[in-house]
Amino acid sequence: MDSLVYYCPQPRSIFLQELIQLSHKPTDQGFSTASIHAGYEPDEYYGSINVPIYASTTFAQNGPNELRRGYEYTRVGNPTITVLEQTVAALEGAEYGRAFSSGMAATDILFRILLKPGDHIILGNDAYGGTFRLIDTVFVAWGVEYTVVDTSNVDEVKAAIRDNTKLIWVETPTNPALAITDIEAVAKAAEGTDAKLVVDNTFASPYLQQPLKLGAYAVLHSTTKYIGGHSDVVGGLVVTNDQQLDEELLFMQGSIGPIPSVFDAYLTGRGVKTLAVRMDRHCDNAEKIAEFLDSRPEVSTVLYPGLESHPGHEVAKRQMKRFGGMISVRFAGGEEAAKKFCTSTKLICLAESLGGVESLLEHPATMTHQSAAGSQLEVPRDLVRISIGIEDIEDLLADVEQALDQLPQ
Ligand SMILES: Cc1ncc(COP(=O)(O)O)c(C=O)c1O
Predict the structure, then answer these.
(1) How far apart are CA 10 and CA 285, in angstroms?
(2) Which of 41, 83, 95, 382 falls 20 to 30 Å from 165 in CA-CA distance?
(3) How many DSSP H helices and E strands does the chain contain?
(4) Which residues carry this modification: N6-(pyridoxal phosphate)lysine (predicted)?
(5) Is 171's C-beta closer than 6 angstroms to any atom of ligand 1?
């Protein structure tokens, strides 16, 4: 797999430096204000309230290599994409943000920057199946080693750190078991080692949790989920306070090209403006549905960090604003009951993905996490993951109730 061996040289060119300046704009606005305004002011010519979609592959130059405001060619930078990057960076309390064509593209680029053959990564024993697949196939073939631990147990993380450990990858809450990791404790465990802590913050969104403030080195988002929020656009984003990492991310955007289209960047930026109000409603609905599910005999376990019975409840209370819109449920009737439930809801649609305004459910063992079968990340077959949307709670509860009623007692 020699073709996969590429190291990231330091970016050098002037245009990169100019773009870095443009993107370096922290804000002290409140969360909702920043989600609507950070990164963009009405343009000076027409006063457009929304960021224009700069559908332009290239930008006129004043003279050879004399760029206007840093933009040269859209693969290496586009104003519509910059605004999205600045907005999400502001929401995470980060200095820098870089957008990618998907969450997986962003993950891949981060791995390429932070790892080289012979390095070691620590991964949680519950994580998005695609992240595991990328490590277990592409990066193992590239010569990277990995250890799977329960990252909610910081002693396990500490014990797994080796001299060649360069990356600790933490999802919290995890997909799909909703396990919680103490970000601050893991960041402390990594101190004094070469291991960088990266948090996949997709499930929480920056409204509920800001891992950089808890000591993480970088944060990854699948913006396909809560940030976009409407199940109509795929994207990824990485934020950090480390200027060198940001330069390398920018270099990779320009050198490899896994950037979002400008239309997608616009749509994602439109979605993020309502993140706070959507998240509060997701949380309101999820709290009620988790309680209802917990009261039902068909259900053996409700995995929701907002329930006091959840092993990560106290940590979640400390590091999250609220507990999120994702619930996983294990059924007393096993796999058969889980699958029956998946096909019995009428309003909640059986589909992969999450974080949109509409409620979705899925059976991870046979859908999103199929690639984890037989591994330490294998998902129990009696588990159903529900992404609680922002519909009326009465309708959601009625749908869950009628679906449960169809299961054998
Ligand atoms: C937690 C998490 N991280 C990353 C990803 C990958 O994101 P994308 O589908 O945008 O490539 C997903 C996708 O489901 C996810 O759930």
Answers:
(1) 47
(2) 95
(3) 15, 12
(4) 225
(5) yes
Give all strands (DSSP E) within 194-289, no chain letters.
196-200, 218-222, 236-240
Active site residue 200: yes
Q: Which residue has the tokens 């979640």?
A: 316
Q: Give Cα 24 distance to the centre of its chain.
A: 22
CA 224 to centroid of ligand 1, rounded, Å? 7
Count of alpha carbons within 13 angstroms of residue 69, beta-carbon side: 8
CA dist 237 and 106 (Å) reads 6
Mind listing the pLDDT tens digit of every residue in the chain (409 residues)?
A: 333 333 333 333 444 445 544 444 556 789 999 999 999 989 888 999 999 999 999 999 999 999 988 899 999 999 999 999 999 999 999 999 999 999 999 999 999 999 999 999 999 999 999 999 999 999 999 999 999 999 999 999 999 999 999 999 999 999 999 999 999 999 999 999 999 999 999 999 999 999 999 999 999 999 999 999 999 999 999 999 999 999 999 999 999 999 999 999 999 999 999 999 999 999 999 999 999 999 999 999 999 999 999 999 999 999 999 999 999 999 999 999 999 999 999 999 999 999 999 999 999 999 999 999 999 999 999 999 999 999 999 999 999 999 999 998 7
CA–centroid distance, 77 to ligand 1, in Å, is 24
Q: Is 182 in the pocket of ligand 1 (CB under 6 A)?
A: no
Residue 262 has φ and ψ, to the nearest 5°, of -65, -30
Which protein residue has the closest C-alpha to ligand 1 atom 14?
353
Cα dihedral angle (307, 313, 314, 315), rounded to 10 degrees? -150
Residue 223 CA: which ligand 1 atom is closest? 10
Angle 78-81-87 from CA coordinates, rounded to 5° = 135
Query: What is the distance between the alpha carbons of residues 206 and 216, in angstroms, rounded to a whole number?
Result: 13
Domains, the chain, in order of start with CATH, read 74-272 (3.40.640.10), 276-405 (3.90.1150.10)
Please name the amino acid found at residue 296: R
The Cα 181–Cα 189 span in angstroms is 13
Whether 128 is catalytic:
yes
**Whole-angstrom distance, CA of residue 11 vs CA of residue 251:** 6
What is the distance in A from the centroid of ligand 1 to the CA of 203?
A: 9
Bridge partners of residue 302, in order along the sequence:
329
